[in-house]
User: Fold this.
Amino acid sequence: MWDTHILLRQHATIDTLRIHAHDMSLYTVEAEIGGECRPLADGGSTLTFRSIEHVRERLGPLNVARCVLVQSSPYQEMVGQTAHTAPPMELALAWPGWQAEG
Assistant:
């Protein structure tokens, strides 16, 4: 896990910040730095959030080059079909201090 306090102290640049939507109001975050992806933590505990805005408020000071929302769809399972491994959808998000390119 990447500890947010250490990332802030080191002024580390996060290449990609991925916000994973798990449910209607449950989000976790992972950071890619130098090709290595790890969940973000605070004092050894994985960070969880109730909204994207809450993620922005809490992690806004981090230096983020790119931010995406990752959403997997359970549609196949919901209609009684076998789940398949469709890739999750990634949607570029604006991060505090910059706007996603359109």
Q: What stands out?
A: The chain has three helices and ten strands. The chain has a mean pLDDT of 87. The domain at 2-92 is CATH 3.30.720 (Signal recognition particle alu RNA binding heterodimer, srp9/1). The beta strands are 2-3, 13-14, 16-23, 26-33, 36-42, 45-46, 48-49, 63-64, 67-71, 89-92.
